[in-house]
# Entry
Amino acid sequence: MLHDLIIEGKIVNPYAIHDVQIAIDNGYITAIRKQGLKSERKIEAQRCLIFPGFIDLHAHLREDSSHKWDYKEDFKSGTAAAVHGGITTVIDMPNTPLPCISTDRLIKKKELARTEGVIDILFYGGVSDSNINTIATMQKEVIAYKIYLAETTGGLYIREDVLPKAIAAVEATAKPLVIHCEDQRVIEKVREGLKVKAHSELRPEEAELSAVKKVLAAASGDTKIKIDIAHVSVYRTLDLIGKRFHCEVTPHHLFFTKKDVQANAFLKVNPPLRSEENRLLLLAAFKSGKIDFLVTDHAPHTKEEKARAFLEAPAGVPNLDTYGNFVAWLIVHCGVPPMLIARVSAYNPAMFLGLHDRGSIEVGKRANLSILDIHKPVKISSECLYTKCKWSPFEGYEFPGAVRHVVIANCRVKNEKCKIYDMENKLKSIIDTD
Ligand code: DOR
Ligand code: ZN
# Structure
């Protein structure tokens, strides 16, 4: 049989690595063999690692029907940046100018995503004081829900006293829940008392630990709900949650510390960067498999906004473009096993969200693949980025590898069978099997 396409190389699954040929037909993986598969079109990726398409559980693509923040990012630029970073499915956060807290807003966002996005964009429904009794009405449109326990970009958050009710409401929908854990009360108390305020002191470790304790108390013992603690910044949070909840970590919390922030707000993020000791402990925990997801928390703001006085500058850094470079750094410089990357960047997020058609490289799954060359050092430069904000926290850093090809199959939003993007050719789609 002549297949649509064959890719040859080292496939990395959550529990095994094999040198094989993958056959792709109609956007699905139809055979995996040592050799002997035939096609007129072949991608030879022997020196690369072929991962299941990365799934980013946590990104802020910024666009909604108000278009007020399109100057920061939109679905077109954000998904191009995602492809550049090897990400083939992205889940968009609800803290946009019109917070995504109703079906009407969701449907409008979905339509924009369908026409502009180049990969699957799925959506969180936000939980606020105003929709807590009606979140079930959104459940058909969302993949999961998001709760913020503190003020951050967009101002969408709930007070801790409504947390048990909010968790119960999400549980009734049977959807997973991601919670931004910083305790607003702790933040407000510190704000009143402190004179000289570093960002990491304004939003101290205690704020994260206190919020996590409140989530532990609010999610009753026999609850079936799947909860993910967003962007863990404090090592001790991992001890608190144990195996009870899932958790995420971002590239910036694994790479930078509060010393890197100093007086400029480019590395101002919520939750803040912490000490070097804490970073090393987080990295060690990541390597030992204690953290379920590696997410971007891609939060683009313009250079002008980030150059403002520290207290006025918005929090957040762009991270989509450089995700593959960062993964290469984890593998080559930190000794992270590639199979662990397949878990935290593809398999675990797929399972958490119930996306059983992706997340590993197996016959019958969608042919979403991220092909990473870990022997191709790259210096990050803002000129090479696809994010609209055109800067990166990693500007000037050299990473040991880069994404070479990305295969995107059966993209729900595009109705395309299979596209292959070639990174050396400016994201040009080199093969289109439609
Ligand atoms: O640093 C952050 N930026 N943390 C958040 O929780 C929100 C995000 C944003 O949307 O800008
Ligand atoms: Zn975020």
